[in-house]
Amino acid sequence: PFDVLVVGGGPAGASAAVYAARKGIRTGIVAERFGGQIMDTLGIENFISVKHTEGPKLAASLEEHVKDYDVDIMNLQRAKHLEKKEFIEIELESGAVLKSKTVILSTGARWRNIGVPGEVEFKNKGVAYCPHCDGPLFEGKHVAVIGGGNSGIEAAIDLAGIVKHVTVIEFAPELKADSVLQDRLNSLPNVTVIKNAQTKEITGTDKVNGLTYVDRATGEEHHVDLQGVFVQIGLVPNTDWLGDTIERNRMGEIVVDKHGATSIPGVFAAGDCTDSAYKQIIISMGSGATAALGAFDYLIRN
Ligand code: FAD
What we know:
This protein is an alpha/beta fold and 302 residues long. It contains 6 helices and 19 strands.
């Protein structure tokens, strides 16, 4: 068996694997797609000490760093079941079963898509998901935020300080965000809120030039000229495969303590698949390190 088996090969998993391997213990990492979300990311400018990089380049560096150690890398393998017996067993979609004394879950998350025409075509060409990451690219421009929940309204407030104008598009007749956030939003001069609006299409040529929505009260179609659209309708953790085996919160995020420990002894978790307050590369790497140190601590005590 492995001493530490990491499930997920994004920033959190890579960091966990390096930290575990540096303890000289038998370490494996299984990933559906090594690199994770950063494979879909163009510019990265908030990975501290690196002023600018690109997702695939950072992913290659992560892999190179992991390969510098004696880590068993199993790429293009998807985990489908976890069970604690004598060891912790991870069953893969291929049918293989991996056994380990400790497991670190780092299966990440994905942004919920709205699934309208233009969303996929203009991804990274005006369609964005992360205001902390891509907000500064829209300085002085007109953008929309789709989604009036907490994340949408936080994004709109954040963006209003950077861009020229923000239009918030909410499907329901009312915003769902906390009232303190709504009050703050309403105090801003450069924000328009459109409620009861169903986004139909994100339009553009080589990049985004606007958005079409239907007023759900009247059925009328409207178009807004824009240079950017931030989709903020939720982040979905990749944890469905765990079912009821492990404690997850209402959003499906794995609940961890400050050592990265989960509800199953010997199983740790890190990164965007957990209930961490913020989801960023540098944060997931930090939590990967925490989980690996937590797992090592567990091994020397058990
Ligand atoms: P992920 O990166 O999601 O990695 C999860 C890993 O688990 C992947 O290897 C995946 O294949 C694997 N996996 C999933 N399910 C299974 C399974 N069942 N079995 C095996 N493997 C599985 N953050 C920043 O700090 N700066 C930015 O500029 C930035 N820009 C972003 C732009 C975009 C478009 C997106 C989508 C995100 C951006 N982020 C940015 C957020 C950042 O990418 C994430 O916070 C970070 O990647 C989380 O790392 P993670 O390792 O927890 O998860």
